[in-house]
Amino acid sequence: MALDFSQIIPALPGLADGMALTLKLLVMAVGGGVVLGTLLALARLSDNALLSRLAKWYVNYFRSIPLLLVISWFYLVVPMVLSWITGDLTPVGAFTSCLVAFVMFEAAYFSEIVRAGIQSISRGQINAAYALGMTYSQAMRLVILPQAFRKMMPLLLQQSIILFQDTSLVYAVGLMDFLNTARSKGDVVGLPHEFLLFAGAVYFVISFGASQCVKRLQKRLAV
Amino acid sequence: MSAMISINNVSKWYGDFQVLTDCTTGVKKGEVVVVCGPSGSGKSTLIKCVNALEPFQKGEIIVDGISVGDPKTDLPKLRSRVGMVFQHFELFPHLSITENLAIAQVKVLGRSQEEARDKGLKLLDRVGLKAHAHKFPGQLSGGQQQRVAIARALAMDPIAMLFDEPTSALDPEMINEVLDVMTELAQEGMTMMCVTHEMGFARRVAHRVIFMDKGAIVEDCDKDAFFGDINARSERARQFLSKILQH
């Protein structure tokens, strides 16, 4: 079977739109995931036993179910629950429901990374911050978290690269991300193999390239 | 002289293990008190109780009229008025020396950036490190870092200073540069409570010496009495002193 890649060029603008959606989802999900993950990590490490246990359950729960299931749930179940509560049936939209699913799912993973980061900072640092009169929140924001994030940056980025690949699961709810666009464009022109091979190459180049950059960053931070 | 820090019958437990037993002492305004004793005797724990870095279960500690153990006490505010210097310096490694000196002045005391910067530089000059203002803590030697840590605490205009083994983590050649700064501070009338093994410093600078063993205060007397007649000291203090004064 001869492969014909010539049809990819006219499809590039459409594929670029798909990639834009993928990247938009990625950036927003990483941002939200890191924020929620950090809050979960702080809850997990807090002296409040109830808060700590709730955070632990959250993390264990989301780490024990498939991402695809979470995406489907938030697409189907959450709008339904919302309509029970608010009374009117406004659809949330596939993008928003996917974003919420990713943020909540990834937060579980990010929180474990952030927790390890916070725990790697010595007790003496928080004591020094307290001794200067800082409150818990000041000590965390100004002293502990900046150091923890610096240490954890390579791991956070690696997790983001995994998330970049996982965003392709939004096909399940019909969102036109990069992979879904490539698939549908390939089907339309009757060249599904070429388009999927191309999509695979793009995912590989971006993920592998980013991963190499992270490794270089890790070496620089280690010095 | 009035008591700046007064410690009354303080006891503390880690689970079933009692680390402090009925400790009662105090530090008057302008007084320099050295706390010594074998490792594990609870001296670091006691000094950390003074600014509530360690909670205690029994007794009370009053700092400048404010009860440390009272749940209603605004601890950050109290701590901001008491300087503390740690064994491992604990400068913030992600901030430059200038920022280390300024951050709490700005965020805790609400001073302006310029004011905090000027104050920091003045104190840095005082500890002889003005030329290092732009550097990061990792670029300084241990002795230099500890002097910056003292300057950082002084920048808050503390009413008293707590030193928790400030020279224990230093190479011998760097100990004196830190002790010199502390001596100068003492001579200016700063109220100081110092956990240290530096008996030379205690002899020269301290007004009073407290000796602790197994979580209890065994000796609490004037410097001259402590170093004067060794036979008047308790058995445990004699053992300790003979061990560290031999060399």
Helix count, DSSP H or I runs of 4 or more residues of chain B: 9
Radius of gyration of chain B: 18 Å
Largest interface: A-B, 18 and 27 residues
What fold name stands as the CATH topology of the domain at 1-80 and 197-247 in chain B?
Rossmann fold
CATH architecture of chain A: Orthogonal Bundle
The SS-based structural class of chain B is: alpha/beta
CATH class of chain A: Mainly Alpha
- As a percent range, the share of helical residues of chain B equals 25-40%
Could you spell the SSE succession of chain A in H and E letters? HHHHHHHH
Largest sheet, spatial ordering of strands of chain B? 6-7-8-3-9-10
**Gyration radius from CA atoms of chain A, angstroms:** 21 Å
**CA-CA gap between termini of chain A:** 51 Å
Query: Largest beta sheet of chain B, briefly?
Result: 6 strands, mixed
Overall, the morphology of chain A is flat
- Report the mean per-residue pLDDT of chain B as an integer: 93
Main beta-sheet annotation of chain A: none
Instruction: Tell me what portion of residues of chain B adopts beta-strand conformation.
Output: 25-35%
Q: What is the CATH topology assignment of chain A?
A: MetI-like fold
Structural class of chain A: mainly alpha
CATH evolutionary superfamily of the domain at 1-80 and 197-247 in chain B? P-loop containing nucleotide triphosphate hydrolases
